[in-house]
Design brief:
The chain is an alpha/beta fold and 307 residues long. The chain has two domains: 4-178, 3-Layer(aba) Sandwich (Rossmann fold); 182-270, 6-phosphogluconate dehydrogenase C-terminal fold (Orthogonal Bundle). It has helices spanning 18-30, 43-52, 62-66, 81-88, 106-115, 158-170, 180-207, 213-218, 224-231, 235-244, 246-269, 272-291, and strands at residues 4-5, 10-14, 31-32, 35-39, 57-58, 71-74, 97-100, 120-121, 124-127, 147-150, 174-177. A six-stranded parallel β-sheet has the order 5-4-2-6-7-8, with helices on both faces. Helix 4 (81-88) packs parallel to helix 5 and helix 7 (180-207) crosses helix 9.
């Protein structure tokens, strides 16, 4: 695997679950000469992270973990970012870059800015993950060929933004930059609404009276099982995403409900042309995703490797 020099020498990872663990493992595998420290609020996670060597040193406090670091990455649930930032604040060095991996960006930017006044805050979001969580779920190649969106606040130090971009590239990601508001709209439609739909359809199917749960599971290959993978995602993470990306989600949800109602009308009216047109347009999107290498055309989506 390729390894490249990094602009950072000491990276602290706060939160050692799927994403934090993967950042630690990817840093060891792909970035040259970086020392990593890690901290998690849960003592059992710290013990497991130590066994799995998710970071070079696992510390007992957040302040100890960030002491001397030139990059800190918060990998905790979106709703815990502010508390995690306040807890580590006493250990932060001057000149440190504080970043995160949270799935919504406007509210995190606000909570980090108010928790850490005077510090350089450059939020980011690797658009990579699985439905698994916890320290066991991390793996070094999670970010390879995936996008990472960096959302520098207005006036952010351009050199430090470039250093953060270079770091994520070293971990294997392709990096885009955009403002936090736009990120939240894009992710509402590409990630947050799809999760809401999956949680809904899987919940609906398991509550039906006329179709048994056994039948739903037995015949799931008809489409349902692809929703179940998404609907198995971590409840804490997704509760926080919807509470923190409320406005963008509500905007996109209204749009979705309008379109759903158009399809419902077409079914009621027996209007095959509307249905056929819509289904033809959506096939082209699937083709573009495959062409960009963002998914696998095999029937199991090539995901068996990561459980
Ligand atoms: P995870 O596997 O549940 O790991 C999060 C870890 O952070 C848990 O061990 C949690 O401990 C710990 N934690 C909570 N509050 C803390 C605090 N104040 N200080 C230190 N540690 C704390 O979650 P994840 O999937 O890695 O998600 C982490 C972040 O990545 C979230 O912001 C999420 O939006 C983002 N993200 C996730 C994905 C994905 O697919 N999962 C993709 C991209 C980005 P407890 O369990 O005890 O609370």
């Amino acid at each position: 695997m390729n390894a490249a020099p990094s602009p950072f020498k000491r990276v602290a990872i706060i939160g050692l679950g799927l994403i934090g663990g993967s950042v630690g493992l990817a840093t060891r595998e792909f970035a040259h000469g970086i020392v990593t420290t890690g901290y998690d609020a849960d003592p059992a996670v710290r013990a497991r992270a130590s066994e799995l060597k998710l970071a070079d040193t696992i510390c007992e406090t957040a302040a100890d973990a960030v002491r001397g670091a030139d990059l800190v990455i918060l990998c905790v649930p979106v709703g815990a970012m502010g508390d995690a930032a306040r807890e580590m604040a006493p250990g932060l060095s001057d000149g440190v870059v504080v970043s995160d991996v949270g799935s919504s960006k406007e509210s995190i930017t606000e909570s980090l800015t108010s928790a850490l006044p005077g510090h350089c805050i450059i939020p980011a979001h690797p658009v990579a993950g699985t439905e698994h969580s916890g320290p066991e779920a991390g793996f070094a190649t999670l970010f390879q060929h995936r996008w990472c969106i960096v959302t520098p606040p207005e006036g952010a130090d351009a050199d430090k933004v470039s250093q953060l971009v270079a770091y994520w590239q070293t971990l294997g990601a392709t990096v885009d930059t955009m403002d936090a508001h736009h990120h939240d709209l894009v992710l509402a439609v590409t990630s947050h609404i799809p999760h809401l739909i999956a949680y809904t359809i899987v919940g609906t199917a398991s509550d039906l009276e006329d179709v048994t749960r056994g039948e739903v599971i037995k015949y799931s290959a008809g489409g349902f099982r692809d929703f179940t993978r998404i609907a198995a995602s971590d409840p804490t993470m997704w509760r926080d995403v919807f509470l923190n990306n409320r406005d963008a989600v509500l905007t996109m949800l209204q749009r979705f409900l309008d379109d759903l109602s158009t399809l419902k009308d077409a079914i009621e009216d027996g209007d095959g042309e509307v249905l056929f047109d819509r289904f033809t347009r959506t096939r082209a999107i699937r083709r573009s995703i495959l062409d960009m290498g963002q998914d696998d055309s095999r029937p199991d989506f090539g995901r068996k490797d990561h459980g």
